[in-house]
Specification:
Distance between the termini: 154 Å
Structural class: mainly alpha
Strand content: under 5%
Largest sheet: 2 strands, antiparallel
Protein name: Retrotransposon Copia-like N-terminal domain-containing protein
Helix content: 55-70%
Pfam families: Retrotran_gag_2
Low-confidence stretches: 1-5, 227-237, 245-257, 259-272
């Protein structure tokens, strides 16, 4: 019997099959990943109550003697249900575990989480609307930004407060940067409202074109560049033009003392005067 019970049990690999952990913002996505697993493994009955727990004891009467024995179906059900409960616990964040700490079955834990995150309430609706309003693109990619917005819109729909498609479009367009101004104007000029999927596609294409556009790099400040253009001078225009340019001879830049022309002229005149005096004395 032990082998039969073991082969009928289904174990969910949370790490591989349900990697998304439940937090206070992603209940819909988290629920979806488990619903597909429950349906695929034929475990949905444990969650929705269509496969209730069988009786623990079975009775049999033989020769007017009633005997009770443990129901093997009960053991199978308990073990399978606990494996489902373990998968649910392993797929939620530690701060949420206390909410289901007293749940004895997977169905009890499932209903507690649904009541906490999917039950319509005025406070919850206001909270999600506030989270949607505070969402901004910032440095997020178009895909990440739109996924965040769509998640909040879907959550509001589940809570019975769906957001109008045009209002959702306006929210997205308002949070785009100036670089998307051309696309924003084109969308706003349309006569018919654009769908979320079409807007997503157009934004992805526009984002790709922005990334492919080379950015110009300014090497000099504008004032310095303007001064260079207006002056029309060489960067070495302050160099003394009377000094020899040793760059033309491959030497280092040096300044050499120049002979004093006034001094040599004075010496030449003194020599002529001396010669003249000598001849006169003759």
């Amino acid at each position: 019997m032990g082998d039969s019970v073991t082969t009928n049990l289904v174990t969910i690999n949370v790490t591989a099959q349900a990697p998304l952990k439940l937090n206070s913002h992603n209940y819909l996505s988290w629920r979806l990943q488990f619903q597909t697993l429950f349906i695929g493994y034929d475990l949905q009955g444990y969650i929705d109550g269509t496969k209730p727990c069988p009786p623990q004891q079975l009775t049999a009467t033989t020769n007017n003697i009633t005997l009770e024995h443990l129901n093997p179906e009960y053991l199978i059900w308990i073990r399978q249900d606990q494996l489902i409960l373990n998968a649910i616990i392993g797929s939620i964040t530690p701060t949420i575990i206390p909410f289901i700490a007293r749940a004895n079955t997977s169905r009890e834990a499932w209903n507690i989480l649904a009541a906490t995150y999917a039950t319509p309430s005025r406070g919850r609706i206001k909270q999600v609307k506030s989270q949607l309003r505070l969402l901004t693109k910032g440095t997020l990619s178009i895909t990440d930004f739109l996924q965040s917005v769509k998640a909040k819109a879907d959550e509001l729909a589940v809570l019975g407060a769906p957001i109008d498609n045009e209002d959702l479009t306006d929210k997205i367009l308002e949070d785009l940067g100036d670089e998307y101004r051309e696309l924003v104007r084109a969308v706003q000029a349309r006569e018919n409202a654009i769908s979320f999927d079409e807007l997503h596609e157009k934004l992805l294409m526009f984002e790709a074109s922005l990334q492919a556009t080379p950015k110009t790099v300014t090497l000099f400040p504008p004032t310095a560049h303007q001064a260079s253009r207006t002056s029309g001078r060489s960067p070495f225009h302050n160099v003394n033009r009377n000094q020899p340019n040793n760059f033309s001879h491959g030497g280092n830049w040096r300044s050499y003392p120049q002979p004093s022309h006034s001094g040599s002229h004075g010496k030449k005149m003194s020599f002529l005067q001396t010669c003249s005096s000598y001849h006169q004395s003759k």
